[in-house]
Automatic annotation (TrEMBL), chains A, B, C, D:
Protein name (database record): Transglutaminase-like superfamily protein
Organism: Adhaeretor mobilis
Annotated ranges, domain Transglutaminase-like: 175-235
InterPro entries given in the database record: Papain-like_cys_pep_sf (IPR038765), Transglutaminase-like (IPR002931)
Length: 278, 278, 278, 278
């Protein structure tokens, strides 16, 4: 399912996440929950508050860092034992513009350099194992966005969305066999098929309006013509309401939280609401 | 084995690679064979010549592109059917400087942003599967460069260098079980252990003086203190003679050649020779 | 941990299992819950009752079959939709005899034919992947029961017993890496090491007195000298209280319940109690 | 492809295998090269000769053992260092009879006990990973031999026979993804699909008339109605010329040669020739 866009439509979306953890021994936190700054996505306001045992910590005690290759924003801090709560809020204006220009898939020799790493296999997207299979099934098709739609259709049709059917180590191979998964697995399977056919594809995490139950979501960006086009083979909600957080090769790069030390998640509350414009 | 360096020593190394392919149907080539530009490695002269059926093609028919995140240089061209030959030559001056500064391993919250992606698991380095194992065996050690040396020792001691014992899909897990591999596999296993212990580690391909038989080589760069330190658990030759080509998460990112289409390698000749200085 | 046996001691053990299922569409059931008839284990009394929607079905509606190679007993029936309950009870007298005879491991050419299949790799015990690793670590040891004890020690020492840490597809390779598992995984890892060293080893399910929480248990039988000796690397309870149900290559062969159709387990209650003798 | 049989036709086939090994340190050999005694396959004459450094060893120095569950015949001997040669010859009369009786697939509750183990997943046939995929694609078909033909068709159509495309650790999952393999891999893939659909299926090695290049071959026996029916998804030659050696869960059970110790195969010559009847 691709975004169907009307010319230059504007949507205002409020996103919120609250994460609560129990830390046994001192631990280091990295959080990728902040909205990604994009030309089509302007951050009107944003707030992050971090609490240790219900007391807000000083801004000097945590930092924000942006990863150069992806511009993913990452909050980092050292957490002493106790309960930790992170509250993130942002108001985002999405500007959807009709994607003009070519819908052809570029030959490898014409791809921009920044797209090349997204042709390679990655931890959960072993595209080197799908080369012949993808070629057999899709190699004869015209190389434009209809090919990507055919891949998205296949993933949607052969995969059941089943909560709890996969875990953190599940790869695209596993999903291809089990024929079930969650958003992460649908994304990995679509990515693997794209890359096996020499189409750059990357993983994007985000907030999604109207997702039920509310949670972080995952989708796929495919390089078509001269831009990254977003796809979501789960078809759970309109991508007009998708607010990207972080991009990467696959789920390994965009974990919303990673730690050293023994950390136990107590709660995770996510929301994304579209405001009716003033 | 780390580089043992004396203060500011200079070495001149001539590297050469010749690749010959048979192309059945029109194919697209990407080659990562050019020496990486680095502060410690100055490229004195460089030449790349590409031949189609023994006739050199015009420079307008191929291009060079540098991948932003890594600065890996990549030659690209479209190859019509026939025999293709690529000749690459470079004269490099390596400046080895005594690495001063800290030898401690940074906590995650102090790592520079560019190092963060190299903490994540990747296609051939499934570090998420090694977390507990690495913690059990090495979690109690002091977190400085002696920890990385302990890991390098372990990889060297438990792995036999055996030509033909692995293939393009072999992962660090496979190597950990089989206890044998080639340079690629030694590198993956060392990387997996570093990342499992929250130490950034990346894969680097390169030319290596005195490697027998001559071939492309692979080593590991580990982020220690404030710089990337090179390690080679194969211990096949002195790293003073290593001339880096490309870096990446693992072998998936630095393939010396990748193609679309049916391409058959006919020959591959590599050499790296240290010149006695004038 | 091997059974420590005194001469010809007799233990009476009452075992019980109750399984309750919800069947949506007509399904076929196979249950391996009945105690295995053995020379050292005499079944004093036994009862199996099967209920469909709380009404006991007639004995003509289910059957018992014994698998020739293993003598595993299997209850089979076709289940119409509704709730199904199976109650199994048995009173067993175990006769523990001091194992006399050789404690040497037989060379392959002297093994009895019935032991040979248990040298081969199986679904969850990929011993062909552990050959070199086992040889490196244990190849120099004397080939008698002290070698098996060394393997059992290794499995016990490097593996944490962690509920929920594995699933039905977890293999010995997974357990070797994750260093955690449940009884099934401890058994698979011990089996894999035995077979990699050319020692026949098989999986046995059973009831176990004093297991907390009560559940079906899994252990390993290793062919030593001229008999199958039982080992349990979990060391959760004395093997004097182990009442074997079924043997096989690994967990794939001894599932306590397998089905066609959509079947949902509602409850599973197990007990094994040693009677103080009269 | 099933055997197409005319009523009670008789074929005489001469089979031969010669294996030559270099043994560095004393090793133990197990060979499964002898024709399997079957009602439809009478062994008219048979000879096995074993040579150490070109000198035939005495019959007392090797033995034959039959594995109870499968009746596979196995030659065993201890081999001192040096060159070893094994010559096996047999003349076999195959009696092909029209398979009368049911062609329906039995429900699990009606299967004979001996067929039950061949419903379980095994080392190279991870049928537990294919349950949903097989159900989605074939679950709606009539459960008779036309279902098995549909499976055989699928394996034949999606898999390329490619020498050297797999190795000893390749599983059915690997073959399903790579879409290529040799006879072993075609057999594993057909077995996996049968078992995933609750149809007993086993692996059989054998000699095959007209196989090019001559080699040991692998096929599949599927339990249909009341007998094991043979299938070969490679379709390389008529199964009328197939002379079974050994059966098992998969290739792990029927290796034509297994060893302890360092053994190097120098040569392997196989032939199977149909005699024009007198």
């Amino acid at each position: 399912m691709t975004i169907t866009e009307t010319e230059c439509e504007t949507t205002c979306i409020d996103v919120h996440s609250q994460l609560i953890y129990e830390v046994a021994n001192a631990a280091e936190f990295q959080l990728q929950i902040a909205v990604r700054p994009l030309s089509q996505q302007s951050i009107e306001s944003e707030s992050v508050k971090i609490y240790h045992n219900d007391q807000q910590i000083d801004d000097s005690q945590w930092s924000e860092v942006a990863i150069p290759a992806t511009e993913n924003r990452c909050y980092r801090f050292r957490a002493e034992p106790g309960q930790w709560r992170i509250d993130y809020d942002a108001a985002v204006t999405k500007i959807s513009q009709l994607q003009a220009g070519s819908h052809c898939l570029s030959p490898i020799t014409s791809l921009p350099a920044e797209a090349l790493p997204f042709l390679n296999p990655s931890r959960y997207c072993e595209s080197d194992r799908f080369l012949q299979l993808a070629e057999n099934q899709f190699g004869g098709l015209k190389r434009d966005d209809s090919l990507v739609e055919a891949l998205e259709n296949m993933v949607f049709n052969r995969t059941s969305y089943t909560m709890g059917s996969s875990n953190a180590q599940t790869t695209a191979t596993d999903t291809y066999l089990s024929t079930e998964g969650v958003c992460r697995d649908f994304a990995h399977l679509l990515i693997v098929l794209c890359r096996a056919l020499r189409i750059p594809a990357r993983y994007t995490s985000g907030y999604l309006v109207e997702l039920q139950p509310p949670d972080f979501h995952a989708a796929v960006e495919v390089f078509i013509g001269d831009h990254w086009q977003i796809y979501d083979a789960t078809r759970l909600a309109s991508l007009g309401g998708f607010v990207p957080i972080a991009i990467g090769l696959d789920a390994a790069d965009v974990a919303f939280a990673s730690f050293s030390g023994k950390v136990n998640m107590l709660n995770c509350t996510i929301s994304a609401v579209a405001r009716t414009s003033a």
